[in-house]
Amino acid sequence: MKRQSSVRLAAIILMMLSFLLGGCSDLFGKSSPEPSASETSTDAPSSEPSVAPDSSGSVIAYLSAWERLDYAGMYALLSPFVKNDLTEEQFVKRYQTIYDALKVSNLVVTALPTEEDGAVTGAGTAVKGFAYRVSMDTEEGPISFDNQGRVRKTVQDDGITNWLIDWNPSYIFPGMEEGDTVRIEKTPAIRGEIVDRNGNPLAVNVEAAQLGIVPGKLGDSADTVKASMAKKLGMTVQEIDRKLGASWVKPNLFVPIAVVVDNAAREELIALPGVSAQKVTVRRYPLGEVAAHLIGYIGEINADELKTREAQGYKTGDLIGKAGLELMLETQLRGTSGKAVVIADRAGVQKSVIAGQDARNGTTYKLTIDAALQQAIYEEVKADEASVAAIQPKTGEVLALLSSPSYDPNAFVQGVSKEQYRQWNEDPRHPFLNRFSRTYAPGSSFKVITAAIGLDSGALDPNEAKEIAGLTWKKDSTWGKYYVKRVHELNPVDLSKALTYSDNIYFAQTALAIGKKQFVAGAARFGIGEPLPLTYPFSASQLAGGGGAPSGDIQLADSGYGQGQVEMTTLHVAFAFSALVNGGNIAYPQLSEADSAFAGKLWKEQAMSTDTAELIKADLVKAVASPEGVGHGAYIAGASIAGKTGTAELKASKGTKGQENGWFVGFDADDPQLLISMMIENVQGRGGSRYVAAKVKRVFEH
Length: 702
Known about the structure:
The chain is built from 23 helices and 24 strands. The chain has 702 residues and is of the alpha+beta class. Strands 1, 2, 3, 4 and 5 form a five-stranded antiparallel sheet that branches. Strands 7, 8, 9, 10 and 15 form a five-stranded mixed sheet that branches.
């Protein structure tokens, strides 16, 4: 009795809605299976039951409940014909499961006009068609579709006749049938590659073997197999046991152990009991340690990275750039995975795609780097602690950037062993340290900048022979025990000799003659105090700590020969020297094709005047050609190598021994296609900057 009252109340409400919303009976007729006797309305000869005027009220109420995600309310409006085979729990669960998986939001469900009225079928049974439109936002993209349904005229137990929804799975999504499922399929984007200026690979995707163990197939050979794998893969048995001991591991599951690119090693290992391989695509760095700091490497995302990148679609297990350009260009290289909302049949076979988007592969970056030059330079400095930059000085293209000592980034992709990582991490030479991105005291290489500022400000006469006696000098008694020291005793000294013999006192006096204000302004014309305009994060150069100006005469004098608190990267020094071949201008730095918009443009216009550039360039040619010149180690017969040495002393106080970093910056003045800026740490006892000049010479010869 209680149920009849509820049904009667629902029918009355629907009749009222129908009356208020009337005029929507333009419904498209659609045939239906024969109803059971309890669902049909027969031709009663005497007492005509109370009938709702049309079906629009039921349709509007049903679509309204759907839009509110009121699944129970939707079920209440279904015909008994449907309810016989579908419980409310099943109905609600079906919608909730699908909508929750898709993370549906902004759902809008509206009725559409139809052109035909309903058709009567069977023994007085009436069904009518209706049309509707659904739109929603999902995590996989927007979904919208037009669809059709039908309502059935049904006589309730109490004699009330009403129109109720004849639901089937196609109402959820067109084409969906009983037993079908909705699933989300994702297609990973292919990571963009990195190549050099000639298309040679620097970071590429290659097919490799993911070696693993199925624990249940090891049998009695477990210890032998693990020991053999550990030895071949450079791992420990404990590392293998740790992977096999993960909480998700089951006897019949494949447990990944390591990635192997070497086919011979793969064949040898998969012959072991319980060991098998799966094909995977992995990142490969053909230059290995030669370009490790520049290119970097990728690895599995960690908890901290996931916390900051989860909103960008990253999830546990994803690979992400960890260092170098792989990190700097992560967003562009990664691309966007494809995703699709798919209807599949009982067998899991895809029937249709409801929504989604194709994968957008990552961008491939073509660098201005020359892999052959990078390799040649590395061979010269791999035993040293060094920073090297090479550029095409006229165009601004960066041809080589490297730091030594280095590490093999492929080890991180394949799974670096704890022992190997420990060796690298505890190496006192710090192979993980990226030296080319750091600043160092440029030493005497900075004298070129001091000379240019002095000449253009009028504070320096290149032909004036300065009277300088002895190996030490100080301005006056206010300097106390502080003094400037030079290596060669020359008297008198002009600019050409000062550059040839690298006279510290001459350039200390020049800096003081220029004055702090003009010295700072002149240095700024070379970009000192600002970062290089490149994607890669180089430390900004400076004249003094905190980016300020030299604090007094002593610091200003020391700055004149590249000591004090002056610091520059090897790349910035290279660009400063490039003004010598560009009439005083500095070309805009370029590291990849993405920077081609700056080709032909200037980063710094008239860092020095054209006349000054020509004068200093000629003096640097003499400095290398002269047998007495400190840069003579870079001399090549038949070439016109212009260059400047530098030795930066790092020590606690005057008169003590400290670390010496040697510099040489050089180019062929007659054919300036290559300019190299090289800094090597700890050159004391190895010939100082001459040790560096000889290495640059061999690169030019190569």
